[in-house]
């Protein structure tokens, strides 16, 4: 095959920015400087807090950073709720996602004339953390495990939010949370180890895309540490701010500044003044902390100025960034700029309802469809059973808006069937009564809309004593009162603290930061159950049970010894009710899944990746009763559906998709919409396929579709259609790859054509597949379209740690087109003219972090402000520097090391293996501080020619740089 050179085509948007940006910025800069010059130092400092006060003498209104707009306008009342972010990405349709972003941006603007508390035009979205571990509690907020797909989707959404003109912003979106934030467990104290290749090839591109396209206007820093340094003080000036020539408004995450000083969870600095100074010097402009209270931030900044940790120009820099964004938002323009006319009428408009339905339908993924079970034939259906705990409800998540209306799965299906068919339904959950085994009194709830305090009073199990038990896995349940349809939750009516906590049936769904609607019914040896509280209040502990107060019978908290023992009486068997609805139905739709405030959420990662036990049992029972069963899984993450994949004829997945969920499901079930959603993550068969959630080295630990070698349940990019597509042979053209795609079926449908590459030979471990481009194309039956997918030569580059730069290696590259990373339909091989990475020259000063392999080490902060070193965590820890050319002989090791603990440490140079021939040993004395480095040296012998060089470190040693001369 001829060698071809692939050339990138410039993006039109980038060209437009080059033409328009500098001129607009030049016009704006004098206005910014003029206003900055009028501000007093105290006024400038006041603008550094999230809640920026009004400055009436200059005509400045109050300004707030931080309107939540992840998949709709949130926390400010009723607004259009689109599918969760993971669902939006599952459409693989960036044009649609830009439209959704534009609609959300309009709705944010819609409140500008009222300006309710908590509203602002700086929106905290999109979330671009890569979903490398499906157990992450906030999986619903991200887009994909793949950096390219995440980059495309986040840029599209941010472009819609901002309006597409970076000089005249509809809203000012920022991407969050920077950087490598994919675990909730100990999220403010864990450190994500990012070796340079993982940082450059995987993590950074996801954050960089929307910023470099001038679609996003800044970043929010994450809670965690990266390489030992809190993200709150990670240097943004040498990273994020280099991605664009425009001003960025960077913010901290909520309360994160308070984690940094002594007394905080990170204790990285001695005082808040030191912490705040470091935050500003790192390139962060706005402190999100202490809610509305700015006094602590202001006092710490002033103290930093007094101590010389900051100078007024440091304050000016941050305020200049803030003012630039506010000018671009039109705040100081007559009538609010080009978007000043938008009012509240846009919120939940008919157009936005239609868009929400389209997005929800395109987000649905057809996982399995044996025997063309789907679409359902309307002509043959007279009775449908819609059963399951999510059959007739819709749930929102922490970052959702308030649903303006609800079309549940049952309602959507019933509406689509019309009057000609019957829709039977059952949630498939047990209705129970709980009788105190000692007193005979039943647990009762209030019958009014507002509920009442639960108490043990009734002597008969009437409606007030009935509760529906919804299982969410691992024994956790919610209790819904049959008396008023409200969930039982805990609150403190008297303000007396834990001893005064009582339980009321007054909640529409689980909610709140501390989700208090969670319980476990713990079986006892005497056939009774204890009612255990399973909410998220950490300070209550894990062994808290409910018992009746002596004076009034009301339920309160106590120990297991005090707990009421209940006889669990089944009033209605949920499974039998579901089976009664299902047995004679023409088709059964079982809707199972998650509750976003329970199964995984902010501060809580998943431990179990399967369906809840009660839900899995319901699916098995219904399928046994009626083989014409379709299962819909409605949740926010990959699920280990091994049994379901093997036995259920048809499986659909949707995220929690907002107000139009039911209509969208009906559109797909009955074939009005041909499913075109595709998975944006690998669906594994078991938790055992994954390393620790705290392990961030995808390359070494074979994470994500790029490196995973095991058998998966569903591959990245998977999704079926009601039609079939044939791929032609790819062809290299200027700027990319062309492939012909034909619809060979009898229905119109959309195919997501995915382009992957693989480097056949390399100096380093390369991805097995790497997504380079994709396009969603709609084809009529028999129609063929030639799709051109961009592929540049630079896209084949990887980060060369031997020279700290990007490199395209000379060699052969497979280019693959397919329907998923596991369903490659056609491929070609290209010979690419690149370079051969030369042997390492270790005579030059080499940073220790630029290793090729390692064991027993962590990446750590070289200093508090910048730099990464390597820290040994055990004796015999080692670093590999492969393929080094030591020439005629390296005679001397020179290394810079730090050792905080007392005593001596060593750096050994070994050849060929960690226990190979020892060329020399350097001895290091304690430096007394992890940040104080000293030079150590050692004579070397036998170190010549081409070698794999290993540095073996003693426990507690930190190594920043070294050389072998």
> How many domains make up the 3D coordinates?
5
Strand order of the largest sheet: 9-26-25-24-10-11
Low-confidence stretches: 1-20
Mean pLDDT over the full residue set: 95
Secondary structure class reads alpha+beta
Keywords: Hydrolase, Signal
Pfam families: CBM_6, Fn3-like, Glyco_hydro_3, Glyco_hydro_3_C
Family: Belongs to the glycosyl hydrolase 3 family.
GO molecular function, one term: hydrolase activity
Describe this structure in words.
- Keywords: Hydrolase, Signal.
- GO terms for molecular function: hydrolase activity.
- This is Glycoside hydrolase family 3 C-terminal domain-containing protein.
- The structure is a single chain.
- The protein contains 16 helices and 47 strands.
- With 965 residues, it is α+β, with helices and mostly antiparallel strands.
- The protein folds into 5 domains: 307 residues, TIM Barrel; 148 residues, Glycoside hydrolase family 3 C-terminal domain (Rossmann fold, 3-Layer(aba) Sandwich), CATH 3.40.50; 143 residues, Trefoil (Trefoil (Acidic Fibroblast Growth Factor, subunit A)), CATH 2.80.10.50; 129 residues, Immunoglobulins (Immunoglobulin-like); 119 residues, Galactose-binding domain-like (Jelly Rolls), CATH 2.60.120.
- Helix 7 crosses helix 8, helix 10 crosses helix 15 and helix 11 packs across helix 15.
- The N terminus is likely disordered.
Write the SSE topology:
Layout: H1 12-38, H2 41-46, E1 51-52, E2 63-68, H3 85-90, H4 94-109, E3 122-127, H5 147-162, E4 172-178, E5 191-192, H6 196-212, E6 219-221, E7 225-226, E8 229-230, H7 272-281, H8 295-306, H9 312-328, H10 350-363, E9 365-369, E10 383-387, H11 409-417, E11 422-426, E12 430-436, E13 442-444, E14 455-458, E15 467-471, E16 477-481, E17 487-491, E18 502-507, E19 519-523, E20 529-533, E21 545-548, E22 555-558, E23 565-572, H12 574-582, E24 587-593, H13 613-625, E25 629-634, H14 642-647, E26 650-654, H15 661-669, H16 704-707, E27 725-727, E28 731-733, E29 736-743, E30 749-759, E31 770-779, E32 784-790, E33 798-800, E34 805-807, E35 811-820, E36 823-832, E37 846-847, E38 853-855, E39 857-861, E40 868-872, E41 877-885, E42 892-898, E43 905-911, E44 918-924, E45 934-939, E46 946-953, E47 958-964
Parallel strand pairs: 2-3, 3-4, 4-6, 5-7, 10-11, 10-24, 24-25, 25-26
Antiparallel strand pairs: 1-2, 7-8, 9-26, 12-15, 12-23, 13-14, 15-16, 17-18, 19-20, 20-23, 21-22, 27-29, 28-29, 29-32, 30-31, 30-35, 33-34, 35-36, 37-47, 38-41, 39-40, 40-47, 41-46, 42-45, 42-47, 43-44, 43-46
Helix pairs in contact: 1-9, 4-5, 4-10, 5-6, 7-8, 10-15, 11-15, 12-13
């Amino acid at each position: 095959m001829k060698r071809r050179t692939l050339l990138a085509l410039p993006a039109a948007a980038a060209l437009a920015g080059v033409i328009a940006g500098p001129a607009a910025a030049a016009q704006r800069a004098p206005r910014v400087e003029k206003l900055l010059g009028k501000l007093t130092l105290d006024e400038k400092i006041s603008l550094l807090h999230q809640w920026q006060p009004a400055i009436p003498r200059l005509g400045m209104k109050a300004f707030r950073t931080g309107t939540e707009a992840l998949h709709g306008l949130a926390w400010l009342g009723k607004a259009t709720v689109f599918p969760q972010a993971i669902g939006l990405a599952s459409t693989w349709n960036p044009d649609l996602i830009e439209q959704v972003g534009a609609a959300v941006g309009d709705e944010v603007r819609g409140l500008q004339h009222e300006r309710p508390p908590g509203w602002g035009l700086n929106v905290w979205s999109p979330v671009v953390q890569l979903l490398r571990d499906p157990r992450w509690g906030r999986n619903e907020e991200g887009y994909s495990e793949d950096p390219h797909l995440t980059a495309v989707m986040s840029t599209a959404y941010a472009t819609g939010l901002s309006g597409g003109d970076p000089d005249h912003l509809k809203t000012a979106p920022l991407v969050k949370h920077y950087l490598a934030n994919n675990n909730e467990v100990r999220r403010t104290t864990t450190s994500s180890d990012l070796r340079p290749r993982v940082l450059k090839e995987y993590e950074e591109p996801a954050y960089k895309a929307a910023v470099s396209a001038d679609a996003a206007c800044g970043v929010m820093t994450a809670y965690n540490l990266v390489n030992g340094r809190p993200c709150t003080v990670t240097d943004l000036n040498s990273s994020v701010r280099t991605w664009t020539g425009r001003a960025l408004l960077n913010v901290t995450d909520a309360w994160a500044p308070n984690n940094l000083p002594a007394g905080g969870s990170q204790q990285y600095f001695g005082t808040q003044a030191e912490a705040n100074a470091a935050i500003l010097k790192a390139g962060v402009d706005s402190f999100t902390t202490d809610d509305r209270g700015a006094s602590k931030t202001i006092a710490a900044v002033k103290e930093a100025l007094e101590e010389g940790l900051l100078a007024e120009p440091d304050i000016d820099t941050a305020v200049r960034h803030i003012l630039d964004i506010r000018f671009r938002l039109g705040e100081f323009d007559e009538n609010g700029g080009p978007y000043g006319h938008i009012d509240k009428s846009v919120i939940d408009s008919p157009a936005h309802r239609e868009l929400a339905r389209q997005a929800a339908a395109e987000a649905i993924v057809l996982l399995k469809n044996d025997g063309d079970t789907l679409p359902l034939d309307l002509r043959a259906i007279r009775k449908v059973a819609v059963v399951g705990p999510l059959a007739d409800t819709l749930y929102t998540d922490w970052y959702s808006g308030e649903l303006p209306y609800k079309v549940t799965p049952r309602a959507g299906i019933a509406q689509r069937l019309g009057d000609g068919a019957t829709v039977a339904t059952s949630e498939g959950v047990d209705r129970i009564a709980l009788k105190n085994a000692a007193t005979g009194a039943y647990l009762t709830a209030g019958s009014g809309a507002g509920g009442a305090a639960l108490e043990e009073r009734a002597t008969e199990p009437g409606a007030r004593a009935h509760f529906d038990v919804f299982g969410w896995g691992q024994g956790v349940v919610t209790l819904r009162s049959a008396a008023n349809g409200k969930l039982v939750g805990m609150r403190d009516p008297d303000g007396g603290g834990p001893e005064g906590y009582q339980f009321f049936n007054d909640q529409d769904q689980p909610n709140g930061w501390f989700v208090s609607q969670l319980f476990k019914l713990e079986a006892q040896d005497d056939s009774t159950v204890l009612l255990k509280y399973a909410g998220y209040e950490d300070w209550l502990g894990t062994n808290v049970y409910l018992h009746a107060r002596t004076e009034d019978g009301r339920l309160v908290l106590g120990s297991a010894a005090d707990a009421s023992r209940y006889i669990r009486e089944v009033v209605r068997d949920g499974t039998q009710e579901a089976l009664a609805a299902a047995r004679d139905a023409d088709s059964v739709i079982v809707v199972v899944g998650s509750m976003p405030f329970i199964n995984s959420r902010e501060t809580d990662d998943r431990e179990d990746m399967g369906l809840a036990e009660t839900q899995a049992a319901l699916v098995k029972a219904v399928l046994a009763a009626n083989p014409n069963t379709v299962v819909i899984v409605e949740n926010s993450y990959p699920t280990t559906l091994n049994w379901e994949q093997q036995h259920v004829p048809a499986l659909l997945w949707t995220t929690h998709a907002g107000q139009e969920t039911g209509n969208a499901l009906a559109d797909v079930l009955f074939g009005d919409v041909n499913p075109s959603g595709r998975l944006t993550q690998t669906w594994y068969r078991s938790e055992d396929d994954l390393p620790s959630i705290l392990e961030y080295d995808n390359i070494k630990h074979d994470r994500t579709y790029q490196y995973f070698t095991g058998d998966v349940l569903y591959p990245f990019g998977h999704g079926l259609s009601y039609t079939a597509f044939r791929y032609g042979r790819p062809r290299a053209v200027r700027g990319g790859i062309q492939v012909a795609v034909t619809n060979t079926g009898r229905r119109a449908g959309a195919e997501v054509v995915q382009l992957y590459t693989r480097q056949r030979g390399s100096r380093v471990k390369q991805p097995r597949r790497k997504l380079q481009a994709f396009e969603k194309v709609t084809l009529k039956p028999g129609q063929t379209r030639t799709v051109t997918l961009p592929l540049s030569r630079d896209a084949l580059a990887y980060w060369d740690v031997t020279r700290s730069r990007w490199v395209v290696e000379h060699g052969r590259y497979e280019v693959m087109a397919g329907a998923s990373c596991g369903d490659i339909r056609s491929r070609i091989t290209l010979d690419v003219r690149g370079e051969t990475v030369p042997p390492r020259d270790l005579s030059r000063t080499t940073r220790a972090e630029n290793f090729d392999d390692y064991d027993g080490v962590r990446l750590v902060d070289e200093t508090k402000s910048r730099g990464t070193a390597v820290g040994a965590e055990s004796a015999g820890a080692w670093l590999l520097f492969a393929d080094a050319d030591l020439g005629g002989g390296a005679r001397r090791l020179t290394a810079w090391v730090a050792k905080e603990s007392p005593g001596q440490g060593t750096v050994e140079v070994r050849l060929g293996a960690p226990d190979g021939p020892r060329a020399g040993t350097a001895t290091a004395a304690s430096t007394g501080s992890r940040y104080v480095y000293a030079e150590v040296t050692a004579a070397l012998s036998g170190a010549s020619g081409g070698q794999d060089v290993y540095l073996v470190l003693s426990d507690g040693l930190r190594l920043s740089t070294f050389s072998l001369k």
